[in-house]
Amino acid sequence: MDSETVVHNGGCHCRKVRWRVRAPTSVVAWDCNCSDCFMRANTHFIVPAERFELLGDSKQFLTTYTFGTHTAKHTFCNVCGITSFYFPRSNPDGVAITFRCVDPGTLTHVEVKNFDGRNWDSSFDKTDIGSLSKVQKSAN
């Protein structure tokens, strides 16, 4: 989705984990049905890692969970349990931002697409999700 890029702030429920991310005001978020995302009801948009910044002492409040291929790094606050971001298997060079954890006021539109995480390989091949963590070069 093309829209203005802004700085979004966000974090977890107890506010021990805080971050900022540069992303469009209008995003495509992915609703995944893999065993982890489905249970957490995590719907997220993906950005290149260089556009994400963990703030303050947030790192000390993070716990990481992995399973299966151990490529995805599912981070969550060790105080309130919220996953406000994680490092997805589809984009290990990017960050998945839980769109509901973005502070109000900067996201103007969220288009939700489905990702069939229960059939991960075929869904990955059928979508453009792998490209979303790449910095897009502007045509000048």
Word description of this protein:
This protein is mainly beta and 140 residues long. Helix content is 9%, strand content 37%. It is built from 2 helices and 10 strands. The protein has helices spanning 35-40, 120-126, and strands spanning 5-11, 18-24, 26-32, 43-48, 52-54, 62-65, 74-77, 85-86, 94-98, 109-115. It has a 5-stranded mixed β-sheet with strand order 8-9-4-3-10. Strands 1-2-5 form a 3-stranded antiparallel β-sheet, with no helix packed on it. The chain has a two-stranded antiparallel ribbon with strand order 6-7. A hairpin with a 6-residue loop joins strand 1 and strand 2 (18-24). The longest helix is centred in the C-terminal third of the chain and has 7 residues, at 120-126. The radius of gyration is 14 Å and the shape is globular. The model has no long low-confidence stretch (mean pLDDT 87).
